[in-house]
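Subject: for your reference before the review

Hello V.,

The reviewers asked for a structural picture of the protein, and I figured it would be easier to keep everything in one thread rather than splitting it across files. Below is the amino acid sequence we used in the manuscript, unchanged from the supplementary table.
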Amino acid sequence: MKILLEEFYKTDIIVEKYHDRKVFIDDNISYQIHGITQSGKSKLVKHYLLSLKKSAYLYINCNDVRIDIEELNKELSHFCNKNKITTVALDNYNPNINLINISQVIVTSQVNYKIDMLQTLQLFPLDYEEFLAYEHKYDSSALNHFFQLGGLPIMHTVASDERNIFLQQTLKYTLSDIEFDILCYCARILSQKVSPFSIYERLKLTRKISKDKLYKSFESILSKGYIYNLEKLNYPQATKKIFLCDIAIKSALTIEKNFSKLFENMVYLELLKSSTNCYYDDGIDFYLPETDEIVLCKPFTDERLLFKKLESIEAFIFTYSIKKVTAVTMNKEGKISHPLSKVEMLPFDIWALGD
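And here is what came back from the structure prediction:
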């Protein structure tokens, strides 16, 4: 193990074409960074390490099959003391590895292990603003490109004819068989109300599976951040809406098309990544209680259709004293006069980049 640690210590880290993310690593603070596969965790950590002296850090990819965890636990602390290493990064962290007492420890994983001594950072796939850093120019094609690639940074390096297969293989490698089947089903019914039981009822038709096993697998991919649940306002026990962690997963896992639902998923992810607390309700895509706002997903609406929609939700607007109604569209922009609220239509790219 000493020989392997020496190899890790001497090996140069390489990061090509790094683009800044909205989360960052501070000096002398220990972190656990969690997020789905290919969300950019390794690159974020490596970019930070390159800002330090080469002799001051040790980077270990815990997926390396040559690592003997028992031996690593015996040698790691002594090795760091001997070489005056102040930062240890354990990429793809295995919880059987003991964390040592050192100035800075950084671990990355898909699962949030909630380690008391580490500050937690969740790294989502790229939001739209981060995505634009990868574009050569910002014009009307950028949004269409976002629909095609989604938010996984690596997709910018994958040939267009290989993207779906690449994403399928990546997810199959990362998830269990049952988790993958659940994700495939969620890709077909994204932005709709669905319960774990209804998923069980569907999947048991095509594979042998117990209810307990499905429920555990559902909770697993939920906790890892591959899917998200959205509660109904004031009804936490009601059936929740389900959303995917990245819009590119839908086209990779299913041939079923529903652009309006995909668009709603995309809007939800922008709200999620901005830490906006929201709920759904009957006729309401997203209610934001902290700002008394409603967000409607209307990619192809116009003033007449939006006015009819406002009439149907006027009781909600009055009951909750809604100050603002925003209809997120593909390219339509405008304002509508309303006696109770400020109402405007905003194209997704303008809305996503706004304050």
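For the response letter, the relevant points are probably these. The chain has a mean pLDDT of 95. The CA atoms of residues 278 and 288 lie 5 Å apart.

Happy to draft the paragraph if you're swamped.

O.
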